[in-house]
Structures are given as structure tokens and as C-alpha cells.
Design a protein that fits this description.
single chain; alpha+beta; Ku70, Chain: A, Domain 2; 26% strand; extended
Length: 291
Amino acid sequence: MRTIWNGSINFGLVNIPVGLALATKPAARQSDVSFRTLHRECGTPIKQKRWCPVHDREVPADELVKGWEVAKGEFVFVEDADLEAIMQQDDSRAIEITSFVPLHQVDPVYFDRTYFLAPAAATAQRRPYVLLLRALQGSGMGALGRFVLRGQENFALIRPHGDTLALETLFVAEDVRSQAEVEEAVGDTEVKEAELELARQVIESLAGDFDPSALVSEYRRDLREMLEAKLSGEVVKRPEPVAETPVIDLMEALRQSVDEAQKQKKAPASGSKAKGARASGTRKRAAAGRK
């Protein structure tokens, strides 16, 4: 399994080598088909430009800076160095476990992204991984901790997922919205026992086991079919190739520049000589006429 981060799970004196692997595809939150924006007339992909409306020109990357909007149209500049200064510089590469909590107490609303934890390659180093996995499977508990990934602090919950340890990154408390308004609306509404019994019967009639293979996107299926039909029945629009700017060797460019400059200097001198020759011929013809 390809891992994006390698470190260890630490608690007490226990150290378990693990690798972090994405449990879902990078584009899992989007369709598996992506689109480019094209110019309808020629089919060329459109380039997005960073445009400053004040100076009416494109802005290069070295002139860009991040800004925090404190009021409408008022910004505080934030430099990359400012952000780097507060990044977590934890180089321990460890998932520090702070406590073990009952899994049923952790609401899935706190789950952000799922990763699989891969054990070490060496057989001897896999034993503590399997030991933790079996202990969590039998206890209904999960390991709560924190770690640093790409300079960013992450809170995490490690839980059994079949015969694998899964890691859920967690939203912090302030990121999860309050449900108090919904609970208040529900609390003020009463239902009759006969209605409740009927609702239970409906649930029982549709009850079944969870089957992940049943989660099939009809939109993705229809999108693929539509694209295949267009590919079969319509001419594919291919934009005209854009001529690339030729890459010229620097020394050759300098030589050509010198040659051009020398030609320009010689041109006026040659013109003066020709003008002098014409003037001399005119004087000679005039003298001959007087004789």
C-alpha cells in the first residue's frame, strides 16, 4: 500500500511503526470526470489570469501576497514567512495518543478524512500493530490523539476497520455547528403512538444489512454514457496548435545582436560614399559643359 507519511503510534512506552495511506481516492468528493473550460469557437482551453483591476494588467506570481479581510475592502498583509513561523515544526513523526475513548461516544459529524494505517514491513514490528488492533476490537474503544502532517496539526481517532487500523482526522469543536435550534424544534413537536408504531413497521419492512457495493452513483453512470455517446457520434473538437516561442541560445542571440548593430553602423557610411560619388560626377559633367 502506498503511504504518504511514515511514523509511529506512541502511548506510554509503546511505539508502533505505521504508514499513513489514503482510504479514499483524492477526487472522491467530486465526480470521476473533470472538465476544462474551452473557447467554443476553436476548442482551445482558456487560461485563467491573475488580473489587477486597479492597474489594468496581469499580475505575476512574485507580486502576489495573501490578505486577511478585516473590514469591507480593508486587508492585513500576511506573508508566507508569517505563516511558516507558526507552522508546527514537530519532526518526531509520531501520533501521540492522549486517551482511549468509547467509539460510540464519538459522533461521526467530527470525522473529516479517513486514512488506513499500514503496519511495518518487518514481521517482528507488526506484532505491536496487531496487538493494538485486537485489543481495540475486543474493547469497543478508540485511540484519541494528535499528529502533525505537512506542518498542520491534526486531531485523530484510531479505530478498528475490519482487520486494519483506520485513522480518522477530526474537526475541532469550534468547526462543528450547534444543533440546539434543531433539537428545540423537535422538542416542541409531539407525535401520536399510532403514528410511531406505523413508522417502526415501515423501518422494519426496509431493514437490511449495509452493502457498500449498493452505493452506485447514477449521475456518474449517466455522465460516462453521455460522454461515450458524444465521442461515438460527434467530431472531437481539436484546437489548432499554438506556435511555441523558439528557445534561442543566449550566446547566439548576443552574436546576432552584435551583427545587426554592425550592419546598422555600416549602412550610413556606405550611403555617404555613394552620395559623394554622385556629387563628384555632377561637378565633372558641369565642367565639361563649360568647355
